[in-house]
Specification:
It is a single chain. It is built from 7 helices and 10 strands. It has about 375 residues and is of the alpha+beta class. The protein has a 6-stranded mixed sheet with strand order 3-4-6-5-8-7, covered by helices on one side. A hairpin with a 2-residue loop joins β1 and β2. The protein starts with about 25 loop residues before the first strand and ends in a 16-residue tail after the last helix. It is found in: Endoplasmic reticulum membrane. Its EC number is 1.3.1.93. It holds the Pfam family TECR_N.
């Protein structure tokens, strides 16, 4: 099955007997809505380690394509797909690649036209890509993957539980004399309610509201995200619930103003999430320009591309004013920095994808940023 040993055959293509018919051997299986007939064999080339050869036929197209998959780093040949129907999608090609390399399931695969280029989308069609009848794709391993739902549930449940440990002053935190005691300051109890409400809201939105365009993310990211959320939750909870905590300088007036900011921004954040949810039908990756609805909280779409981030930052600013706690202020600053990066990225994507995108919108702060 070696092209070099076959004497003059096309490089990288195995000599598959023309008399072999996979459908006579029971090799027919279904790949989604497309029938697949395949044969897998080893091709020990002279240039490097064995490559997998998959003889596949997707559909009944008259002009079949050949797909060669190389390692993006080493340029080693990993797989050769013969008789691929031009209407095949990248998702279907990933499924075929998995048959020869089961350790790389589709969610781990990044296929691209250039070793350093962007990943192709699963819905991209082979014949619409800038390739000829023989397509060369470059593979990168994205590493072990975990679902976005699992990530969000983990990173949001942690702060909720951790904060309550400090609020109830469980043993070994503040000393034996303060075990399970309660603060005499109303703002401490109010802060616990606000903090708990925020993360319960996030958990419920993850389960019932959000629709994710990407099903998974790298497993390693969950450790980074949890360190950020859990660490800041413990830091701010330690000081807010400390027996020596002092209430805000301006007393009840400061607390009431901050509470109003927090509640308004939480309602606004939820309203934006619902509006974004309605833009994308369940199970699809459709992208549309978000516009304001009859809900007044969505009118911020007139000025910014990502008002959900604007409201999120506003919520934490309100919480920082309410508690007058430095760790909360630092958490708000770090969160604002990260959300600004995300907002700018989404804003650029909107401008690139939609020619009629509203020109007056800014990424996160009206008229400024």
């Amino acid at each position: 099955c070696c092209p070099e040993a076959a004497g003059g055959r096309a490089a990288g293509r195995c000599a598959v007997p023309r008399t072999w018919h996979p459908w006579r051997e029971g090799g027919r299986r279904s790949v989604g809505r497309v029938d697949c007939q395949q044969r897998v064999s080893l091709c020990p080339t002279l240039a490097g380690p064995p490559c997998r050869v998959v003889r596949a036929r997707l559909g009944l197209g008259s002009l079949d394509s050949l797909v060669e998959i190389l390692d993006a780093k080493t340029r080693e040949k990993l797989c050769f797909l013969d008789k691929v129907e031009p209407q095949a999608t990248i998702a279907e090609i990933k499924n075929l690649f998995t048959k020869s390399h089961p350790q790389w399931y589709p969610a781990r695969q990044s296929l691209r036209l250039d070793p350093k280029g962007k990943s192709l989308k699963d819905e991209d069609v082979l014949q619409k890509l800038p390739v000829g009848t023989t397509a060369t794709l470059y593979f990168r391993d994205l590493g072990a993957q975990i679902s976005w739902v699992t990530v969000f549930l983990t990173e949001y449940a942690g702060p909720l539980f951790i904060y309550l440990l400090f609020y109830f002053r469980v043993p070994f935190i503040y000393g034996h004399r303060y075990d399970f005691t309660s603060s005499r300051h109303t703002v401490v109890h109010l802060a616990c309610i606000c903090h708990s409400f925020h993360y319960v809201k996030r958990l419920l939105e993850t389960l019932f509201v959000h629709r994710f365009s990407h099903g998974t993310m790298p497993l390693r990211n969950i450790f980074k995200n949890c360190t950020y959320y859990w660490g800041f939750a413990a830091w701010m909870a330690y000081y807010i619930n400390h027996p020596l905590y002092t209430p805000p300088t301006y007393g009840a007036q400061q607390v009431k103003l901050a509470l109003a900011i927090f509640v308004i921004c939480q309602l606004g954040n939820f309203s934006i999430h619902m509006a974004l949810r309605d833009l994308r039908p369940a199970g699809s990756k459709t992208r549309k320009i978000p516009y304001p609805t009859k809900n007044p909280f969505t009118w911020l779409f007139l000025l910014v591309s990502c008002p959900n981030y604007t409201y999120e930052v506003g919520s934490w600013i309100g919480f920082a004013i309410m508690t007058q706690c430095l760790p909360v202020a630092l958490f708000s600053l770090v969160g604002f920095t990260q959300m600004t990066i995300w907002a700018k990225g989404k804003h650029r994507s909107y401008l690139k994808e939609f020619r009629d995108y509203p020109p007056l919108r800014m990424p996160i702060i009206p008229f400024l940023l």
